[in-house]
Amino acid sequence: MDKLTEIMAWKRREIAPLVRPVSLGELAALNARLPAPPSFAAALRRADGKTAVIAEIKRRSPSAGAIAENASAPAQARRYQSAASAMSVLTDHKYFGGTLDDLRAVAAALRGGDSEVTSDKWQVAGDEAGGAPCPPIIRKDFMVHPVQVAEAREAGAGAILIIVRALDDGEIETLHAAARAAGLDALFEIHHEDELARALRHGARIIGVNNRDLSVFKTDLALSERLIPQFPRDVIAVSESGIFTGADAARVRAAGAHAVLVGEALMKARDPAALIRELNG
Ligand SMILES: O=C(O)c1ccccc1NCC(=O)[C@H](O)[C@H](O)COP(=O)(O)O
Question: Which value does ipTM take for this structure?
Fold first, then answer.
């Protein structure tokens, strides 16, 4: 069994006690009750000709082992905040050391310390930070059920992850509809041409190529170079994993990437904001 299959099997067991019917109406009501988070898609498009950086908070991983086990998620988010277009918070605990509370704490930190999810500080936090818009947050987890979408929206996310290879078409459709009803964007993650075709059939507007082969844990930026040029022009292209330097980012940008998603390199950087600026190009 490869690692992704193992993680997905665990995730389905982990969330089983939480699973209940979650209707689109319930998600729409949740969306209406909470202030709108900043738009993930708009943040990736807004990079002014530079490569947008989605800066990830990642304490450990199956491929790298311990990265920054004791890192504080909100403190790390503050180190990213001035330079990142968006943030990614891994909320899986077993394999990545993250929690949903990390997402809540990061959202609160970006709202200027306001932990009240019903507050409309999203709208003003950017101005307080000197005019830069508040970076949206993607909940990076192994999504299988709309109950996780509701959790993401309540915790302050602006987007969720849909790993195409890990889900059947019915699950993708359900998660995508749930995200839309909750006012969230969806990042569709792919690793192969067939998965690109599936993502497009589901109406994906943001697609990420995961450069890491999750069977053997090898990363290869050539995968982004092969797949991104096949994206329709109006799709936002993200290159994920294995990006460490400005040269790496420039390479995938030359292939058409609008954004890069970077975890390990930023968690280990002495000055993450400076590295983000280098990745911006
Ligand atoms: O990172 C892993 O080892 C991993 C293993 C199994 C499933 C997912 C995994 N990573 C999730 C990610 O998408 C990465 O954290 C993200 O792309 C950032 O990667 P990196 O910059 O290489 O830390």
Answer: 0.98
